[in-house]
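Q: My labmate handed me this sequence with no annotations at all. I'd like to see what the chain might look like in three dimensions before we decide whether it's worth expressing. Could you predict it?
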Amino acid sequence: MNTDRYEAERLQGRLIASGKEDVWGWSGRAGGIRASRRAEFLRSAAKLAPGVRCLELGCGTGEFTERLVESGCELVAVDLSEETAALARARVGERARVLVGNIETGEGLEGLELDAIVGVSVLHHVDLDAAFAHTFSLLQPGGRFAFSEPNMANPQVWAERNLEPVRRLRHVTPHETAFKAEELRGRFEDAGFVVDVCEPFEFLHPSTPSWLVPAALSLERGLESTPLRGIAGSLRLAGHRP
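A: Here is what I predict for the chain of 242 residues:
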């Protein structure tokens, strides 16, 4: 049992619940665009629709839970932190079922049968092999998954994981990692999943001032058509269980 790591995650949840969530930059014009992009990718890639039984991993305060329920899917959201789960519950009401659970052990997820598993910036917090064994095993044959994750090839992401002052400034826990595209693809394929897409995306930084967003989006479009795309800030991953 990784009790020290779990306690670090619960502490992170308490910090987020106390108002530290802004460090992730979902508010503001640039943050709103980034959040909308991710939600649309999850809904589309996981084919969320009425009747689809979906599990959102690491729901936090419900930023994406609220967006995912718009698809009409039968959504269950899970987080390790009671504090953040309570905020998510208050945010979505009866539109989704919000659980406190552990995706590495399957605690709290017993009996679920799933057509889709999705999440934003959650896989780099966990032991993937344990999550494959105890949570992704709940995905039915043909079921889909979709995630966005930080890209280790991005200079800022690398600094957050390897330079202590940057890590503390960005509230990154000591055990957090990040992935490169081929590594993340390989982890899923080695676990027996089919990966449809695993690629870097997004140069729009969450701290971009509103007045600079149009220029930043134009620059982003240009960069994503060059080899520099490899150092974009995030990865998007989608596929299915055969």
